[in-house]
Amino acid sequence: MRGAWTVEQIRDAEKRALEFTAESDLMDRAATAVAVAAARLLRDRTGRVYGRRVAVLVGAGNNGGDALYAGAWLARLGAQVSAVLLAPERAHAAGLDEFLEVGGRVVDALPRSELVIDGILGLGGRPGLQRRAAKLAELIHKAHLPVVAVDVPSGIDVDTGAVPGSAIRATTTVTMGGLKQGLLVGAGADHAGDVRVVDLGFALDRPSLQVLDAEDVAGILPVPGVADDKYSRGVVGVVAGSKQFPGAAVLCTGAAVHSGAGMVRYAGAATDVVRNKWPEVVVHDDVGAAGRVQAWVVGPGIGTDEEASESLSRVMLSDVPVVVDADGLTLLSSEWFDGVTRDRAYPTVLTPHDREFARLFGEVGDDRLSAARRAAAESGAIVLLKGHCTIVATPDGAAYANRTGTPWLGTAGSGDVLSGMIGAFLAGGVDAPLAAAAGTFVHGVAGQIAAASGPPSSADVLGALRTAFNGLRLGDLKD
User: pLDDT for 371-388, tens place per residue?
Assistant: First the structure.
């Protein structure tokens, strides 16, 4: 499991490291890693480094110093390296001396280049670029130049991932000492490209944010043993769909069927459709008629009428974990949300997209991670905030970020599949935060598989679940 840290945590770790490691040694490791990443990109494009034209954008302080040392490293390999100094009076003196000594040159404007090293802003930089730097970022983007960012792409908010103005879009970000939050969440993730972490020997505190990889997820998901039966594997109840939206019931129950549940009970108005599509599902006309379950999923396509509200109320009063999605969230926000999730003795997972989140908790804003944490603390629920980087936050402040998926998952019914999966994991005994995080991971992988052959429907995503699970089981998936 990968961790990510705040700026404050990274700075504290760096300060401790400098007590027994010379700053020049840390800079040498950082600059070498940046140069290696740049050389790899150059070789991928041209097969060689010698004679290639590289531009280095140099800001003040150590970040600019790392960029200058990396430029010097490339110059020694025969690259033609030019540096644009955005704050000449505050450029790293030793780095600049070495850069010039090996044949690097200083220029006033972006030269014709085949690769750019971004060393404008580091951890201390304010998000958004000033006028000259913003112009450079625009020129680089228009020219489609590959960019290696030193530590972080200049212009992003390193903690929140917000990009309030112009920012560098990196092909590769070589980040120092530990992964930063802003490289995973918000728009910052889109600007970071391929992120590589350089181990500088930092003794880091507990990460502020965690990211599951394929191996983690494979270890989390329940696998039946020889003594298991359909009941011990977990029975999940699904309240989804209606006469108007029967497809939600099909997608949600189907996801539960294909996500390892020993039995799926369906309670709702789409019994005939569910029975015809999934004959293994036990159907009931309403929640009260359903038998015992180990977890409930409620909300997709149930509508917002009195009958739907009654079903939601029954589920929320149950003594098992509950996933609330879609219309269930609308009912919570409009009728009786206050206190209902805090008062439950069992975990509740809320799965809003941004508009649903706004109705429950207020606008998400640029800081998605803090918004999800705030909502979880207020509600006492696990909050799964959907998006390009989905956040799972818990009431005690723990959080997970998911990096699998595709924009094609933004389609009607996709969330129904996700909620059915999470319900199956909960019924199988997975802790609620990990069930939500693992469900998001597998859902994202299924979306990627489904999208490989063209724009997918939610039924395509559902159909790709078995391939995704088999990839996890066989170790074929990469995070």
Answer: 999 999 999 999 999 998
DSSP, collapsed to helix, strand or coil, labels residue 117 as strand
Average pLDDT of every residue of the chain: 94
Please report, as a single letter, which amino acid is at residue 437: A
* β-sheet bridge partners, residue 54: 81, 115
Which stretches does DSSP call E strand in 322-381?
A: 322-324, 348-350
Report the CATH architecture of 2-209.
3-Layer(aba) Sandwich (3.40)
Tokens of 297: 């999923």
Looking at residue 108, what DSSP letter applies?
Answer: S
Residue 315's CB is within 10 A of a number of other CB atoms, namely 24
Distance (Å, whole) CA 265 – CA 440 = 22
The model's confidence at residue 477, banded by pLDDT at 50, 70 and 90, is low
Q: Which of 354, 301, 357 is nearest to 332 (CA)?
A: 357
Residue 335, pLDDT > 70, answer no
**C-alpha 102 chain-centroid distance:** 41
Residue 265: alpha-carbon gap to chain centroid: 31
Q: What percent of the chain has pLDDT above 70?
A: 98
Would you say 285 and 275 are in contact if contact means Cβ atoms under 8 Å apart?
no
CATH superfamily of the domain spanning 214-474: Ribokinase (3.40.1190.20)
CA 470 – CA 177 distance, rounded (Å) = 34
Q: What per-residue confidence (pLDDT) applies to 61?
A: 87
More confident residue, 338 or 204: 204
Residues forming beta bridges with residue 53, ordered by sequence position? 80
Ramachandran angles phi, psi of 435, nearest 5° = -60, -45
193 in Cβ contact with 171 (< 8 Å): yes
Helix residue ranges, H only, 288-412: 306-316, 327-331, 354-361, 368-379
Tell me the three state secondary structure of residue 68.
Answer: helix
Q: Would you list the domain boundaries of the chain?
A: 2-209, 214-474
Instruction: State residue 343's pLDDT score.
Output: 84
CATH topology match: 2-209 vs 214-474: no
Q: What does the alpha-carbon distance between residue 84 and residue 108 come to, in Å, rounded to a whole number?
A: 6
CB 63 within 8 A of CB 209: no
Summarised one tens digit per residue, pLDDT across range 16-54 is: 999 999 999 999 999 999 999 999 999 987 789 999 999
More confident residue, 337 or 273: 273
pLDDT of 478: 55
Q: Alpha-carbon distance 304 to 343, whole Å?
A: 22
Alpha-carbon span 125 to 135, nearest angstrom: 17
Task: Give me the residue label for tokens 């181990």.
Answer: 199
Segment (H or E) for 59: none
To the question of pTM greater than 0.90 for the whole model, the response is yes
Evaluate the CA torsion angle 58, 53, 103, 199 in order and state its sign.
positive
For residue 253 the two structure tokens come to 């129950």
C-beta of residue 191 within 8 angstroms of C-beta of residue 175: no
